[in-house]
Design brief:
nine-stranded parallel β-sheet; alpha/beta; single chain; TIM Barrel; about 15% strand; about 35% helix; globular
Amino acid sequence: MVYITFSRNIFIPVTNVCRNECGYCAFRARSCEDAYVISKQEVLNVLQNKGAATEALFSAGEKPELAYTDLASFFKTRLSLSGAQSFSLVRYTKELCRLAIKHGLLPHCNLGLLSRDELMELRDVNASMGLMLETTAGLRLEAHKRSPGKDPFLRVQMIEEAGKLEIPFTTGILVGIGEDKEDRIRSLDAIESLHEQYEHIQEVIIQPFVPKQSTTMCEVEQPGFEEMKETVRIARRILHDEIAIQVPPNLTSPKELIELGASDLGGISELTIDYINPESPWPRERELASKIAPFELRERLPIYSRYIEKGWYSEEIRPVIEKFIKSTGSLYR
């Protein structure tokens, strides 16, 4: 039996203030009028209604403290009003992670570029972490001209630091933002090289660009399905067998991609929307199981079993991991 994995999660957007101005992103706040920082009470409201979720996915704009115009000041002011103990996104998110752990969830943070010290700050309160490499084409693309955080050297460097710190990690590439096939191959080669050194990559996301209104790339054509199939096929050839290829089931049709080597569908929430792609609702679990039949859907934790066996997690989240293992009698994936 071939199992296709997914994680039951709740999606918590910490802030939409971001220093990058990517041409395809509708998540980023354009002004103080549409900016926000989630409060602790709002997070608690979500956590108290977590249902069967096992993962708390924390996402945010990158380095909001360095955002352009007056958004950085907005972020710091709202952080103070939210009851944070500092003006740091990392430290505030660490507080939110501890709330999630207290409510029996395993945190997974994707906050953009982080330094080694920031990774260390978050390591003990996360089951895994992530950063999309997106592409090694980086700043030469028009989409990234105003996005210093999309420098591929810096992103590869962070993924490497995560490996050195033994953090189970998710990364991926974004297809259709101006890169070409050779760029995708170079990006996948870079990820494979990092995994060969540190063995810390759990999954690689193959994500299609989706044009969004109010962005400078709103009229750029979305990559065709044949292009997605080719990319998954290439990824399966390049990447180590133990790395799962993840395809987002709300952005593409997963079954044909599974037949080409994809084996994971990422975090699925029936309680919160995909804040990065709000126009694309996640399918419900029963609907998803029907879509991928005869492949069988199987739940996993945000930390894969091989990293549980290696002990790549902290004492702070150990009770939550052990609770899930005890309740199912297995290590999940």
